[in-house]
Amino acid sequence: MKRLSLKLKLTVLYTFFMALLTCAALAILFSLSNREILSSAQNKLERRVQESVEDVEYRSGRLRLNSDFYSVAKDVYLSLYEEDLYFLYGKIPYGFDQQPELLDGVVRTIRDKEQEWYVYDMSYQMTEEYTVYIRGITSVTDAEESFTVTLRFALILLPLMVLATAVIGYRFTRHTLLPVRRITDTVKKIREDADLSRRIGLTGSLTKAGGSGNDGQEDMKKRAGMRRKERDEIYVLAGTFDDMLSELETAFEREKQFTSDVSHELRTPVSVILAQCNAILAGDSYTNEQKKEIRLIERKARGMSDMISQLLFLSRADQGRQPLNTEEIDLSELTGMIVEEEQMLADEEGRGVRIETQIEPHILAQADETFYIRMLVNLISNALRYSRNGGIVEVSLEKKEGEVIGRVTDHGTGISGEALPHIWERFFRADISRTEAGHSGLGLSMVKWIAEAHGGSVSAESVEGEGSTFTFRFPEKQEKEGK
After folding, report:
1. Phi/psi of residue 303, each to 5°?
2. How far apart are CA 330 and CA 400, in angstroms?
3. Model confidence over 133-145: pLDDT tens digits?
4. Three-state SS for 133?
5. Cα–Cα distance list, 9 to 14, 170, 182, 185, 237 (Å)
6. Cα 84 to the chain's mean position, in Å?
7. Least confident of 57-71, 73-87, 89-103, 254-268
8. Phi/psi class of residue 370: alpha, beta or left (left: φ > 0; alpha: ψ in -120 to 50)?
């Protein structure tokens, strides 16, 4: 039952209670109907016997019966007896072989073989000295059989009624839950596309982004007034959800704008710091100890400059202002060049880390050369940074099933299972051991955006203490687009 959808659960619940209610109503109805049928049969028997008195006459010492006395009306058989139970006239139903004693004014139930009969006797005094009995007989079994036919017909109709109830209940529940499905679909699309401008729209959208300031407040007041007029709580929920999305979108837009503005404002002072450091280091006015401290300032300022550049990149990407200029590129040749440059940088550090490659030749794809270089440099530099001294970094590139698949593998510290899902988040750092100077926590966010901007994806696998593998996938062919 837990695996069923809410729609099916409500349908089953509705059908169960409707079937239970119908069965209870039918049971009560048939119970009362059975009693009513038997009571009606007794009443008809008594009336028919009482009315038959008019068909019996005693003239000139002889009994004379009207022809109606012999007719079987209302399923009642009439017969005429003397006081000593001597049969005179009338009809006895087939199958009634008994001869019960005469009992005036009492309806009796007589069982004869497999049938039951109602027998009613009424005395009729023809003269002061001559009395006869009129007996009426009707079949209880026949009356019950007609009721049984009705009962069987009802039992045949009951499954059809339950099925009809289930179908109607399902359609009604589905129609009622359509707004919930619409809310769910909207949330899924928002999660897939990261597009907070989407709205459910059940209550009518007044503005796309909800506005800001007084205008935004007025819009939300109007929507709140509209929701009060809506049909049910689901529409109120949808309207409230739309308002929340508007507020979230406004907040994120302000955050993006703040990040962009701050990054722009910080570029100038950091550039000045770097320029002054270079000028000081080029002169001879300072001692070696002082120049050592100035180099430290320069290194930190350069790290800040790189972080600001990354923030500006991501800010423009968030706002859709980061262009993607694709062209057909030999990724095999470009990847080899990037690996050579990174190997030179690794050699300068003197840690003995080597980069081994397995690059399939002549892989062509539509890509932005600058962004591809930035993505691969980030992945390889990360692998070098977290490799052990004298370790190996493996870089591979292959074409498979219409995709270009690249991998960068290190055999270093690795990433814990708890931290792995969060490595694509901005400023996230797995642990203290991975917080080296110059590492801002923005590189993998850039890698993810670049891969997805090319219509591809990037993923990571890691075992803590053994190393990590980052895999990016690009489509082999892609339409040129701006993003």
Report:
1. -60, -40
2. 16
3. 999 999 887 776 7
4. strand
5. 8, 10, 19, 20, 21
6. 84
7. 254-268
8. alpha
Tokens representing 188? 């899924």
Q: In the block, which residue shows the tokens 């968030």?
A: 318
> Helices H, strands E: what count in the chain?
8, 14
What gap in Å lies between CA 110 and CA 406, rounded to an integer?
Answer: 97
Nearest to 200 by CA among 240, 145, 150: 240
Report the Cα–Cα distance between both ends of the chain, in Å, rounded: 46
| Angstrom distances, CA of residue 164 to CA of 18, 22, 159, 169, 373 | 11, 13, 8, 8, 64
Dihedral angle sign, alpha carbons of residues 380, 383, 388, 391 = negative
Give the model confidence (pLDDT) of 406-461 as tens digits.
999 999 888 888 888 888 877 666 654 444 444 566 778 888 888 888 889 999 99
Q: Could you tell me which of 137, 135, 157, 153 has the C-alpha nearest to residue 145?
A: 153
Rg (C-alpha) for the chain, rounded Å, is: 48
C-alpha to C-alpha distance for 160 and 166, rounded to whole angstroms = 10
Angle ∠(291,295,297) on CA atoms, nearest 5: 115
Has this prediction a pTM greater than 0.70?
A: no
Q: 444-449 long-range contacts, Cβ below 8 Å, gap at least 24? A: 444/378, 444/382, 445/314, 446/310, 446/313, 446/314, 446/374, 446/375, 446/378, 447/375, 447/378, 447/379, 447/472, 448/424, 449/314, 449/317, 449/322
pLDDT in tens, 270-310: 788 888 888 888 877 788 888 888 888 888 887 777 777 76
Report which secondary-structure segment, H or E, holds 290: helix 288-318
Q: Residue 23's Cα: distance from chain center in Å?
A: 33
Is 328 strand, coil or helix? strand
Burial degree of 419 (CB within 10 A; 0-12, 13-18, 19+) = middle
Q: Which helix (H) or strand (E) holds 115?
A: strand 115-125
For residue 267, the Cα-to-chain-centroid distance in whole angstroms is 48
SS3 of residue 308 by DSSP: helix
224 three-class SS = helix
